[in-house]
Amino acid sequence: DLDDSRQSMFLDPSSHGSAGNRVEWNKALLENSVAQAYIRLLEELRTDIETDCVDMYYCAFPKVVDNDRSWEGWLANSFYRQASLAPLFRVSGATIWSNLSSSRSLPEELLLVGEALIADEFLPILDPPLPEHIITGFKNNQINVPMLTPQDLAFGLEQEQDVDCTMDDAPLNCLRKREYVEQILSFFLNDFPADEMEGLPLVIDCRGHLRTLGLTETPLYIAGQSWDLEVFSDHLEWFVDTKLVRNLNLIENEVTGLHYMDNKSFTSELDKYISSKTVNGELKLRRRNTGTLTDTWLQAVFSRLLASNIRNLQFEIRGIPLVPDQNHI
What we know:
The chain is mainly alpha-helical. Helix content is 39%, strand content 5%. The strands form three sheets. Strands 3-5-4 form a three-stranded antiparallel beta sheet, with helices on one face. The chain has a two-stranded antiparallel sheet with strand order 1-2. Strands 6-7 form a two-stranded parallel ribbon. The N and C termini lie far apart (102 Å). The relative contact order is 0.07.
């Protein structure tokens, strides 16, 4: 409904009666028919654009205005309320275009690994990110842009067995760099129940292999002393990477299979280790400065035991052969 000039809509806010009805009519057209036509135009436009032109496509979305009594405000607010339900947003994965509630925006904590997560295509991540004027349009209408959660990420990362592979051979792009794994694990530790982390391949052992929480054949130990790694130097797969432990302040957790190598754990593993190396009841020492079952190795064993409260370990170490006799112990 046009005003007397026949060039603009009749939008006189002071109008009453039949004139006021004309204003309400124009407002209803803007909020319904025009907003719907705007969305249909964008749906047609998206089919003609290339992947690298999505930023230009987003420029066609309306910018919000502060005045909610203006026709621009009526149109923009109605547009964003309806646009949230339409598949207008470019995401990674099999479904290229998604509605807002099914898409996920990357939280700041995962920006470093964002490109790798997008390349893996197991999550509907907004690619490219929404520009600020679109986010503002949704916020002005109390519509949240969904953020990627640990639960979303866990669904795509979960494994059924211990991957036990080098970083280069990891099953996903987002797991092929140490800094990626560290950032993702930190993301989970900040806001995810530890008892739900089983099956996530997010631990690096001292060989540099990626391991799956809760699914390793043997416990993954957090070294209690530096001598632990020296004594069991031929079983570095038993230990969580020390840098990872330090950077993320990892602690033991029974469900995820992370265990602190305390004194009792050390003596228990030492007993089993020596038994596995015994031949015909004898354990031979080698005259070397490096490696296990050497003079240097035995010194490391005693250094570890002396650093412990050895009085509380008398029962545990009683049956372990630790006294050298020429070439045997």
